[in-house]
Known about the structure:
The structure is a homotetramer.
Chain A: H1 7-24, E1 33-34, E2 37-38, H2 40-53, H3 71-81, H4 87-90, H5 97-107, H6 110-121, E3 127-130, E4 148-152, E5 155-166, E6 173-179, E7 185-191, E8 197-203, E9 214-225, E10 229-230, H7 236-270, E11 274-275, E12 278-279, H8 284-312, H9 318-343, H10 354-361, H11 371-386, H12 389-393
Amino acid sequence: xxxxxxxxxxxxxxxxxxxxxxxxxxxxxxxxxxxxxxxxxxxxxxxxxxxxxxxxxxxxxxxxxxxxxxxxxxxxxxxxxxxxxxxxxxxxxxxxxxxxxxxxxxxxxxxxxxxxxxxxxxxxxxxxxxxxxxxxxxxxxxxxxxxxxxxxxxxxxxxxxxxxxxxxxxxxxxxxxxxxxxxxxxxxxxxxxxxxxxxxxxxxxxxxxxxxxxxxxxxxxxxxxxxxxxxxxxxxxxxxxxxxxxxxxxxxxxxxxxxxxxxxxxxxxxxxxxxxxxxxxxxxxxxxxxxxxxxxxxxxxxxxxxxxxxxxxxxxxxxxxxxxxxxxxxxxxxxxxxxxxxxxxxxxxxxxxxxxxxxxxxxxxxxxxxxxxxxxxxxxxxxxxxxxxxxxxx
Amino acid sequence: xxxxxxxxxxxxxxxxxxxxxxxxxxxxxxxxxxxxxxxxxxxxxxxxxxxxxxxxxxxxxxxxxxxxxxxxxxxxxxxxxxxxxxxxxxxxxxxxxxxxxxxxxxxxxxxxxxxxxxxxxxxxxxxxxxxxxxxxxxxxxxxxxxxxxxxxxxxxxxxxxxxxxxxxxxxxxxxxxxxxxxxxxxxxxxxxxxxxxxxxxxxxxxxxxxxxxxxxxxxxxxxxxxxxxxxxxxxxxxxxxxxxxxxxxxxxxxxxxxxxxxxxxxxxxxxxxxxxxxxxxxxxxxxxxxxxxxxxxxxxxxxxxxxxxxxxxxxxxxxxxxxxxxxxxxxxxxxxxxxxxxxxxxxxxxxxxxxxxxxxxxxxxxxxxxxxxxxxxxxxxxxxxxxxxxxxxx
Amino acid sequence: xxxxxxxxxxxxxxxxxxxxxxxxxxxxxxxxxxxxxxxxxxxxxxxxxxxxxxxxxxxxxxxxxxxxxxxxxxxxxxxxxxxxxxxxxxxxxxxxxxxxxxxxxxxxxxxxxxxxxxxxxxxxxxxxxxxxxxxxxxxxxxxxxxxxxxxxxxxxxxxxxxxxxxxxxxxxxxxxxxxxxxxxxxxxxxxxxxxxxxxxxxxxxxxxxxxxxxxxxxxxxxxxxxxxxxxxxxxxxxxxxxxxxxxxxxxxxxxxxxxxxxxxxxxxxxxxxxxxxxxxxxxxxxxxxxxxxxxxxxxxxxxxxxxxxxxxxxxxxxxxxxxxxxxxxxxxxxxxxxxxxxxxxxxxxxxxxxxxxxxxxxxxxxxxxxxxxxxxxxxxxxxxxxxxxxxxxx
Amino acid sequence: xxxxxxxxxxxxxxxxxxxxxxxxxxxxxxxxxxxxxxxxxxxxxxxxxxxxxxxxxxxxxxxxxxxxxxxxxxxxxxxxxxxxxxxxxxxxxxxxxxxxxxxxxxxxxxxxxxxxxxxxxxxxxxxxxxxxxxxxxxxxxxxxxxxxxxxxxxxxxxxxxxxxxxxxxxxxxxxxxxxxxxxxxxxxxxxxxxxxxxxxxxxxxxxxxxxxxxxxxxxxxxxxxxxxxxxxxxxxxxxxxxxxxxxxxxxxxxxxxxxxxxxxxxxxxxxxxxxxxxxxxxxxxxxxxxxxxxxxxxxxxxxxxxxxxxxxxxxxxxxxxxxxxxxxxxxxxxxxxxxxxxxxxxxxxxxxxxxxxxxxxxxxxxxxxxxxxxxxxxxxxxxxxxxxxxxxxx
Lengths: 394, 394, 394, 394
């Protein structure tokens, strides 16, 4: 049991922290930011900075130019990156690319790696992950998948509608989940400019931190050659789990950084602004909120680190990653909400970065499995360990 | 003890409900809505509808064309109006006009009534209330007022900076709080197009429901003739309380309607959308959130009604309105946050009205006294009743 | 809409308040109190005081000597009674007698009234309500009833085990729920000293406020003549609801009084005890807890009053009484827990009455339907109103 | 960063777990348990078992027979011990002896070690820590100390009243905090049977897990020879911190075990008991509580481990131990409260161990610094780091 960081990791942490403070944060007022995320030109400029700093795609495989970080190292570095809404964009570690890179690294063929994964790791292209569907399709229950892939010669022909597809606009690559004629879910790789893929519309969203925003995609007779099947046929849901457990943990890492930023902003204000005869933070009501923030941030970090350690042991960590997802997403939400409250008018306006974090972070309690789904899966696992259903039925 | 509504009030409730449903809600997608609130043209069009329906400025004094509603009647009617973000705009009962009308009705001279109040009640003009200042000025602690009013002949000359001034852009009238040379806070009336008032900038804000948004105002040598002093010299803070206790209660009323809308939207979705083999709402985790919503809405309504009754008895109701402000602002926030959670992706995007309510309602826990200030004033009152400070000091 | 109390009710409130303060509270240190509730002799002495004061069984029917209070009047009077743990005992309005009197008043035959109800109203006898069973029998799900009643000539013969039977030791009367051979639940009246009823043991319990404590009852061939069937055969569950909706509301009333006592005790302490340079209550952290107490008590009272009003309109009020049960039981719990925290060491020891209230009140979140069951029934009702299951199934 | 336990520590964990399960838990129904804790005879019997098992005083110094465990090892072992209310008694690691042993080990002279510390480590004697006083003395604010120590020849003569003194009845040794004539707080060692120490009364308490209960002590002319001053004169408050930071962490460890026991009990019940057509735990409302329990236990453990690691680095860990105290005491409380709720009637009666844990654990949010005091000290530290008071004053 040891909570220390290796000197190498500390150095990388410090380097990332400086990069965010000195290079990225100055871009936060850049006008090339839109309600649907940073413009591609801004994204490219930031990525170039990270590349120059040696901080691009640090989770990517080494042979493609990444730093091959362990889950624990990611926990430390991604938290630093998340300190600015533009940090994960700059370092190419934001959803959905971060998870897609992880997935492709795990299951793509050598040829697929070269064609699809390399440009992602190098930051020269972006990707999207097309799984979620409008009602009555696959939402928090992925088994309700309605998009179909029908074999036709050497190709599969895909029909369906996807929505909440993050980063689709501007992406070069899509990973698409569809079910075969026998109902088995399967993943397919496709260029986004292929005929048969159409961005129907970009959705208005509370967050504005993902390049490309969130879109509705129509898949209308999209042809995918069999060589672009990702992994094995019928293994789509299993791969989704391969992608999701670590992917939701990297959300924990990044959003922890964002929450720390909100807290630091509120703390600086509370240490300076006076009201009713003393500094804001010297009012116990405010001081208690700051203390609760500190405790929530600490707990969120420990939970994330622990799950990262579990994953680094080679375990799948489904239980731990579910618990971290719930605990961290709710803790960081409380932190940001309290920070808004402490800042008062400056928390609900563009006077500070905190309003932006507040809007960006809310959906984290929903995506990658809402709190309710994870609580339920944690509960089922507890019950299963306590007593098999058969016994209980007696 | 009687919780029934009179037949007249029921009829007015029903009429308002129909007006909102049939006339106002169809405007919710109107493109004349901006991040800084509905455009003036849209506002005027909605006001004209309310005027035609006999529902304009229902809290205004009868002799100026209002309906002269009691606080209890307002509780019922304003909740209905709040069911759409555009309802209070249409009926001319939104902040800050609602409170300004109340204040002018209470303390304006007959000549001031005619010149400043009449056009507000008739919906032909809008107003703003210029009290809050940037650090180190008056924020949640109004006694830190820095704006000055200096007597110069028959005029007062005002200098200062105000911010978070809602509705300033497009307003005809400003009520300005400034301190005299002896430090006594005083209210002044001014045309907004007077020389010496300048809108420095409009602030980016989380909410987008107030016509004119929120602005920073520079008062640079603004001349106000002595006849435009509102009420007595040096009574500014007392009048602010005259305005605030009922004003914060009308916020409770309107936002209760908004929260009910969010809940109804989430409930309709939970009753229809299926996941994991049944309707969303049939999952206890979701059902419990719906039940908590129902309980929070109920408690918020009862608290608001009770304080309205206290005010109708002619009491100042400071204790009760503080308790309602905290209890209602936090209850409606929980309701809207849960509604977002139930709706999932549709709660954090423009797919439903709920994202908009979520953004609009957050600041209610801050303005008109943040929860912390009200908790503190409730506590001090409890302590004072329990034991005078002198005793405790022994 | 009117929150005022009639002069008569105010007078009764004041009278009750004085009775509790002057007559009942002095008994709180009486040594005739045991972990299983006040001894019968103490109970009798207290009842005699209430009888003398004209405050005995105020909810009982007038023709049997009660005051025939409306639900709203009960809300006011029972809150006062609950201010002392011994108040409801003295005034004969505690569970289970309070509910049993209500039930018998509603459905007993004239002969049954005379024999069973009269002595209860007069305070000369106590009763118990034998419904709950150990696993796998009827707990929070009453339909799992396992106790059987078999017709045998003019009698029914009852077998089964009941537990958590409050007040059984010392009771003269039992109301027993059992199922007939066709499975239909039915209620039976029995003398407690009848052969075939045996108190197996008294259970150790967290609370100590109910005369007779809580027991396990064995029903072993208990013979009940047909004339002692209470109401119609097979209507047992319906009658349980007749009893429960108002009974759980009277719990709300009494426990509200208890929570007010805890709060008053904590407030008095916080107004007097000094730490870190000022009175405890002047520390915002403590002041906020006091303010939250005030808001919770207020909300609990309004919810209780509202449901009482609904019941007084002749409605069954299932929805409202479920909501009040959850909201009030959780609010008063928070109040008492905060009061303990404010009192520190004096909250977790017999130095104040608050430790006792803390122990007595916890089970209220469980009995008469735990929060979870009520939340679920509120949710189902909401869903049913929003959309019939059939529609949702499409 | 590594969350694994060494093989030795795993073995000790497993050994402790078995000892508790096989030896200690069977004593939980032993009749020699009183409202003021286990009787001395029972305590001695349990201690003999631990001695035989090699598990007695595992935190004690090796040269006196302890195992000299690190803070991290204690975190693991004490959690196991806490799984039974009698575990810490058996292993001689309960408050106040655990902390007193730690304190004496840190600052006693060699002669004092031999005389006072050795019998404590060997389990042949018990001790108490006499610091807290009734109003207006030292409560959560230790600086309000009123007990005096006056030099008289080679002795100090002590006068004062102490209360909430845990374990005083039956203790051989007292550590007494008093202030010298110059006001400097100092610690003194005394035999409990010295003339001048009188147990005025034993207090009724919510908890019943500490041998000897909690008492009021009168110190009336108690003579303490100068050689029995503990450490340096005037360093009393500093030593209290030496004692408290680790002592409150060991509370976290033990109560974490107790909360795990409550959770396991509730889980077993929820996995077996059926209601409304399925196992209790299969109801999402119950399942969510189980999941929240699992997350709270996990977070509490990680927080405790982390602070233990900080202490093992030789740091004082005031910030971390304050955060752990608040976070763990509140988390375990939620766990136990939820477990009560899941168990329903069996949670509020002696049918399960959980009622006992519920009563025992409540005061943990109060002693060793209530949550409010720790939140405040965390806040002050945050503010100090963010900006020195001087800057804020500008």
